[in-house]
Amino acid sequence: MESFERPERVSLTMYKLREYGLLEFLDVVSPRQASKEDILSAHSPYLYDLVRELSRFERGEAGSSSFTSKDTFRLACLAAGGAIEAVEAIMEGRCRRSLALIRPPGHHAGQGHTSGLCFFNNVAVAVKRLQRRGIRKVLILDVDSHPGDGTAQIFYSDPSVLVLSFHEYDQEVAGAGWLDENGYGEGEGYTVNVPLPLGIRGKPYLWVFERVFHGVAEWFRPDFIVVSLGLDTHYADPIGNLFLQALDHAEITGHVLSVADEFCKGRVSFILEGGYSLLALPLSVAAVISRIVDSKIEYYDRIERGGAPPQSLKRLVTSLLDRIGSYTCP
Description:
The protein is α/β, with parallel strands linked by helices. The protein has one domain: Arginase, Chain A (3-Layer(aba) Sandwich), CATH 3.40.800.20. The chain has 10 helices and 8 strands. A 6-stranded parallel beta sheet has the order 3-8-7-4-5-6, sandwiched between helices. The chain has a two-stranded antiparallel ribbon with strand order 1-2. Helix 8 packs parallel to helix 9. The longest helix is centred in the first third of the chain and has 20 residues, at about 70-90.
């Protein structure tokens, strides 16, 4: 049974945020459970009932690497509720930026299936709430080490939601996140996958990220950005295969904040996805929050960050931006 997803991911992260003095900059809010209506806005009744009933049995396998316990349904609804609270705080004018420190993650959960430690898609549920609130265009940025396949599936035909996923790519095991997965019907062109070589370090990753993310945002011009904040891209993560560090996560956050200020009045919400090292995750979250609140912390995990991007990555960026330019934005 998978054991990477555990309560200490949040409790140790809160301890680290307190140690760094970052909590004094934050308005910490406890979430309420998402309602059945909220969950069904993104998922089928079958999936809702499946997770609920397996949790009542206190054990079961809802899908690939998605094992339930007696608390799974309650915690999955609570996580989705935390994502809703994060976007609602912005919509209600309480802040311009928010972060949901929640578990379990959600981006592998599709409309009718669970997968990869994910039961309900927290980001999708939050975006559906934004749509009901009248937000016209949402850019979902997924920076988890693994592709946001569930999120892409839910919005695959929706041109009002652009799903942009940066993730590791292993040709032998990849089941999602291919370059040619770019949407269907009216949603064609509104799914963008950026597969990156295993072991990529900070400087080449950021070179690709900055150019593609800004190019996509400039083309789409979102009204709101929601970030699937996967932090299993850290080199110490037990299941990720990229080689970033806390400093890189802070710089990625800085780029996101800059783009949000440029295109959508600063409105951006970060929703925690992966990140399973109990040493790296708290430091990475602290790095993200330190950039959000403009506070400096010491990044004690610094390593060599890599050199110039290889030609293959430069060709990838050119190809993606050329493709984006060939679509017509609504």
